[in-house]
From TrEMBL:
Biological process (GO), any one: D-xylose metabolic process
Protein name (record): Carbohydrate kinase, FGGY family protein
Domain Carbohydrate kinase FGGY N-terminal as annotated: residue spans: 21-244
The family this protein is said to belong to: Belongs to the FGGY kinase family.
Keywords: Carbohydrate metabolism, Kinase, Transferase, Xylose metabolism
A single GO molecular function term of this UniProt record: kinase activity
Domain Carbohydrate kinase FGGY C-terminal, chain residue ranges per copy: 282-481
Organism: Bifidobacterium angulatum DSM 20098 = JCM 7096
InterPro entries: ATPase_NBD, FGGY_C, FGGY_Carb_Kinase, FGGY_N
Amino acid sequence: MVDIDDAPQKIAEKIRGGRTALGIEFGSTRIKAVLIDDTYRTIASGDYQWASHLEDGLWSYSKEEIWKGLQSAYASMADDVYNAYGERLTFIGHIGFSAMMHGYLAFDKAGELLVPFRTWQNTNTSEAHEKLSELFQYNIPERWSVAHLYQAVLNKEEHVGKVDYITTLAGYVHWKLTGKKVLGVGDASGMFPIDPTTKTYEAEFLKQFDALDEIAEQPWKIEDLLPTPLVAGTSAGELTAEGAKLLDPSGALQPGIVLAPPEGDAGTGMVATNSVRVRTGNVSAGTSIFAMVVLEHKLKALHPEVDLVTTPAGDLAGMSHANNFTSDLNAWVGLFGQFAAASGYPLDPGSLYGTLFRAAIADDVDSNCGGLINYPFRSGEFLAGLSEGRPLFVRGPEANMSLGNFMRAQLFSAFSPVKIGMDIMTKDEGVAVDSLVGHGGIFTTPKVAQKILAAAFNTPIKVMSTAAEGGAWGMAVLADYLWHTNEDKSNLADYLDGRVFAGASSTTESPDSDDVAGFEEFFERFRKGLPIEQAAINAVPLETK
């Protein structure tokens, strides 16, 4: 029997009444739009595939790609609404944008982009990272916007004197649609350090940065270049007439819709996994991967391997972030898919991934991958000390080469870089974790990635029924939160517990002792063999001639 509340006519009424929220997230390989109703169900979605490209040796997406992708994802979602419910989408209750964090989008006074968008994937900012981390005694990762800005200053790039505004990808899209130079506090914390007490930029660090000799020569002060941080639940402006046309060139969507603060993918991942409360954590796995824990207090020491960012509510969180995760894995799965098709037995993606993933935990695999090693580095990886990346598979002549061991090595290697920073938090700093939740497409195949992650971190891993929804759904939830900030117990953690996840189902995988021991053996080989990766970087050109 179909629940009457799920009937298309009931959802159509919600769409007409604006009882909806839209989240659009710019991921590394996909722009996804998710429309939810007032019970947090996805009622329509759309997406657009894209990929970064090298421009003058730096990873980038063009301005044209950004807007083409946004419009295509929105149009796909709007078509989904019409096909399912017979409604032309003219109004949405609230909208929110999110995107991959960090990077460098710099504009002049006329609002023109000064240099091509420099994404988080770029690791050409090591000098800035080292100098700023030492200055602040606070880790400033290579990916952070202020590191990109300072490196441009150190490099004496011609454009730096013209900079009037810098922001992230989510902040850029939000600005062009609303005219507001604001940013969710979680995304802002990946541009410049945030004070968790004031929920804005660390005042002393701003002064220290401006006092640097190279910065004092500039015609600007850092605070004047940065977007204004906003906590979740704060109105972040309205969709302008120009913005509505930019988002929906068909002209159907009307202006005046209130937008949520634009957030980063770390924040939307925390929301999608209900991990914004102190001592909770999540592992968000996609093209990159990060493990986060909401902290009870600041860390005792400076650790370059751990980023300090905030939740969308402004609470401090420790993050172990690895640039590389699924790119190499997807390439190998694609190769097996080509073989299946060539053999006359093509497999759909779900069957292909499911078959290969399940091989990694079959009874006949070696817990330590049988001596196989894989390095998934498509781009540079700070946690591994690599300025560039070269995907690499290695085995000794006596290694046990089997499909199960191969796929297990692929999955073990994908989780290995992020384990470095996580071990520092839990083992060196004694950070307590009450729950750790995994989310992302890799957890769609039941049990496999969850079981391997439990072995990597030696802690139970929960996967919720919303695990595959991802950041776009999390951003839609943050947009919906705008309606509930005046309620009793209106903080974000209580809102998620009491409304969004009250009836959510989940599964938990506890670590298996053999898997834990096997992962530690693999991890030791992985770290010991890193000079092989460096040799590949020296020997294999970055770009195909």
